[in-house]
């Protein structure tokens, strides 16, 4: 490594400016971002990333599931690459930092390494994973799941959005780049991300070393009853899907109530049909998002979801479909030590903490040595248009990432 630390070439103003420019693609009136996976806004944002990367000598490539890679070629082509990035798709009323920071921090780290006169022995690839959020195509983290071999390409390509557009059809409308294999060997992966929680800001730490990710199980529940006239159908003869769904949700809430408050149970989507004021609802479809840090507790609660739904459906029929399952992850101590050493060498205060939210790193953990770097966000707010992170915090995280990547990729003058 050169005598000067490459992290000193991280440009805070450039990193901030790129966040502002990327946020133009899908910008909302309230300062947030609506950049759905495989949308025209996503396509335009990808092209912007490529425009920033090409003058640095990076080559844009993509795989069959639509993951975008910006490749800095290493000195030894026989070695597997080091990856760093996140995602650029958003929630419908999302913020400008969730996901995008990880991609832009990785790009900034590569630019800093080059400015320091260093070249990696292993190739470094800045990656933007396809559909992390799962807001248009469910479930999320499709790109990283396919990359890690956790989901089949055929299964992902067949998924359709609310308008009936398949992933395969949407991919055909995205920018085309030279192809790379799916899956393929990777040496290591490091993801920088805003915390999406209040710990770092509350305790005054600029950087967090992520110990792991809590587990998650998601479900789609369909309750089927029968339409009836709101004024003439006797209450005792109704098959009211909404009342049944309410009873089910209440029972699930009781199931997931714990004194420590560690269980995360959310019903975030609730669709009633025919959704008419004078008609007894004939069907309800709702989502379940269940999370916990302990694999045993998550398994126990998740395995009881279907029984609780059936027991409380009354005269209605209920069908429960598990959409995704991800066990809690613990990142390797060796990677955490590496990131911690980088922060310590730079004199940046830091602390260990787990991630309460899911990330693409959870799937990469299946394929290679993986780690995450957190930076604080204001009030812990995320998945909202007022999501915010300070420029200095973003730069600190990028500096730690730069030093970490320099070691992993064996950078030298």
UniProtKB/TrEMBL annotation:
Any one Pfam family match given in the protein's UniProt record, by short name: Peptidase_M20
Decide whether keyword Hydrolase is in the record: yes
Q: What family does this belong to?
A: Belongs to the peptidase M20 family.
Requisite cofactors: Zn(2+)
What residues bind Zn(2+) 1, as annotated? 87, 98, 193
How are cofactors bound according to the entry's free-text note?
Binds 2 Zn(2+) ions per subunit.
The entry's keywords = Hydrolase, Metal-binding, Zinc
Name all Peptidase M20 dimerisation domain ranges.
212-312
**Which source organism does the UniProt entry give?**
Oceanibacterium hippocampi
What residues does Zn(2+) 2 bind to?
Answer: 98, 133, 383
Q: Tell me one GO molecular function of this protein.
A: hydrolase activity, acting on carbon-nitrogen (but not peptide) bonds, in linear amidines
Q: Does the keyword Zinc apply?
A: yes
Q: What is this protein called?
A: Hydantoin utilization protein C
Which range is the signal sequence, renumbered to this chain? none
